[in-house]
Amino acid sequence: MNIKSYILILFGLCYQLAISQNTQDQKSLVLQTTDTVFVAGTFVSLNFTNSENFTPSLYLTNSFGTTIIDPTRVQKYLFYTIPTNIANKRGRVNWSLIHNKKVIQQGKVDIISDDIVSKIETYVGPPSVQAGGIDFAMSVMIPIDTLDNPVMDNSKVTFKKQFLAKEDTVQLVVKDLLSYETIYSPLKTGRFLISSKCNNKQSTEHTLNVWASLPSNFTITAESNHNYADGNQICTLKTSVIKDAFGNLVTDGTAVSIIIEDKNGDILSANCNTINGVGQTKFVHPDHEQQWKIKAFVYGMAESTPITLSFQQVITDFDVVFSENNREITVGPLRSFMEQMIPDGLRVELEIGEEGATHKYMISTSNDGYVKFILDPENYKNQIYNFKITTAEISKIFKNKSVW
Amino acid sequence: MVNLKKLTIRSLSILLFMSLLGVLIFGVSSLFSFLNTGADRSKMLRAEVFQTRQYIPNITWAPMTNVGRKMDEQTLRNIEKNYMDAWYIKHISYHTNTIKGIEDYYTDSAEKNLFEFINFNKKENIHIEETTLEHHPKINFFSEDGQLISLTDYGVKEYKRVYKNDSLLIEKSEVSDYKAILLLEDGFWRIRHLVKEPTQKNEEETIVFEQYPNHKIKGINYYPQNSAWDTFGDNFDKETLAKDFEIIKNANLNTIRVFIQYEDFGKAELKPEKLKKLRELLDIAEQKDLKVIVTLFDFYGDYSVLDWTLTTQHAQTIVQEFKEHNAILAWDVKNEPDLDFTSRGKEKVIAWLHQTISTIKRIDQKHAVTVGWAKIENATLLKDRLNLITFHYYEDIALFKEAYLKLKQEIPNKPIALGEYGVSSYRGIWKPFGSSESTQEEFHKTMQSIFTENDVQFLSWTLYDYKNIPTAVVGKLPWRKNAQKKFGFIDSRGKPKKSFKYISN
Fold first, then answer.
1. What is the ipTM of this complex?
2. pLDDT of A278-310, one tens digit each?
3. How far does the CA of residue A163 sit from the closest CA of chain B (Å)?
4. What's the CATH fold of domain B218-502?
5. What digits encode the pLDDT tens for the residues A141-173?
6. What does the DSSP assignment read for A65-85?
7. Do A138 and B124 touch (CB under 8 A)?
8. Are strands A156-163 and A190-198 parallel, antiparallel or unpaired?
């Protein structure tokens, strides 16, 4: 026999030995612990008897991680005490005895959560719903034990909700780590109070607000001392109490836009927010005869029926006096509906026309029923001008006035 | 005469002065321009975030049949990203036993569980290299306000390597199911509860071997002459390939071996233009009736467990794309991985190969899988997972026959091929006593006679002499580089060398 065959035989023998050692390793270790299910937080130990003299390590892996522990050995017994970071957490624990980088035995234990619930994690969302029975919120309840483990599936959760005079109780079960209940909105606004119970533990109180649904159509009214177009009196526009389809007041601050179309087709607008369902805004009367068509909107949701307001002309005629070389033009007296002087602020416009040049304008407002225009010599040299004076939609024309 | 001397001295000193001045001006101006180079305005705000994905396990969502709110694609994508990052951060934490980043992906209550584990392992000096390769999550529940989900992650394929006092205790592959609750907190989906469940899946994987085709390899390792180690680079040209494959075919060869470089092909996110070039090469090979051994992972050398998801993506994308191609003969997982045994650790390399073979086999049972071992003595490694054994031989050819027959004896039931062999014909200033074209001819003649005699399948190194060789291949040393250029059967001018007669049998 040559040397090569010896080596081969030796190699073969070693291999055979290694195999038998491995199976022997397996046989010599016997698991003594019979329990495979433990409650989280209890002392968990895997005990083996080992007739051989080697000490394998125990590989452990659970929900959160992996580690390796060594046993304490008392004679032929090996005690593997499972560390708390594994014994305290719910879930499957796979273990393997390892020796010389080989798994020689493996198994599993299950850690289950404790029946004593320490807290019911509750997530209610969204925090408010719209009345009317279509909108809904959801309450998710995750009962956890004292070691922060979610309780086992099929644990019972009692769900309670209170709204106005009504109280409801629903029995739920935990599935996929949680239990949940859908809460549909009632027809009235108000506030749900929500609580739940699992085993020994009662949850804290949670709330869910029910706000009004979308506003429905409404009316609009106008209030004014008189209907003269004096450019001074204030007119108040007010909506009716805006409610949703179920008679709930819309929430304060609902934006209302008021649009006014006058007889020329020009648009005026104002915005307001509701308080106790009513939105209101104010307008100054026009300074000449006018008709307003008024409508209010809660954009995208509701609108009012339109109303019409008419204003009577108050100024029918006025005087114009030229003085100081025709450089001082006095308009007035401007009189209101009871012949009283018109309140300050009426707009008067003077148009100054000149041959071969663009027209110039001067605008002023009335003071004690009069308006005074002064043509200063810096801007207006001595020559012939045409004047046109307009107020409250009435115009007076003075042609070929010489200014010196 | 005096005058001439004087003139020379004068002109020399002027020249010296001028050049000194030039150097001075250059120096001052470079300093000046350096000091004037401020921050790039476009980068001031750090508006651009380049994020490369570091962890891409295969994730397959079950159809959405969840209770509660309807799941939309965008939310699902966010959940997937955060949930995978939570796993990734956990892997990193158990590797380094640090807690950085955990708070981003686990809620305050949940992160304590990880901290306890990390503290325990740190105290015991245990660290774990781990990764997950597959997830099959199913959304069970999505709360109506979109803030909470419950999911079950089925068949999570985990791989772990546990070290104590820096020595490996065990490596394990596991398949587990997890149940989890995630909460949406300030824009992140964070894990609140995680519970490992009893799994239904079988932990044992079976590798299916289909019948190895009746194909006796007479082949050659191939790079185009103008793009050595860069077949799919800028010089890629279909006509060149067609011409070269014609030469190979006419030389009575039937197989080529080509190389796919890991980074060049785009790592985990493969570049479509590279795949297109590979397809064109395979198409031309098929036209010319040549079979192709595709070597994956060339120039890859990391092997770390956390890199596995990326290499898996790389392998499965390529294999999936070409598994139906008629030109493919085999997938060569990696060229000469045994050379990394010393630098990376044999266990790491073998574990990576083991995993990558599974990946390829899972997708493509039809084609053979091999590893191009550098040393014949390593060719028995992983033999049960391969259906073609290949090794490279650059040792003494007098010992080849014996080594080959020994290997054949050790693996009697699988086809064996010599994946690389050859000799350089370089003799020059860096290697004055190197071999010549005649010795190369002699070498191939001898090899071919051994092949014929023992019915050896072979792939020689290589078709061409190359003009340029990338430094990454053999390093910078000119005697190595120059020798590496001259392994071809055809010289750099395109003329067959003497050895060309013995390219095949």
1. 0.80
2. 999 999 999 889 999 999 999 999 999 999 999
3. 21
4. TIM Barrel (3.20.20)
5. 999 999 999 999 999 999 999 998 899 999 999
6. -EEEE--EEETTEEEEEPPHH
7. no
8. antiparallel
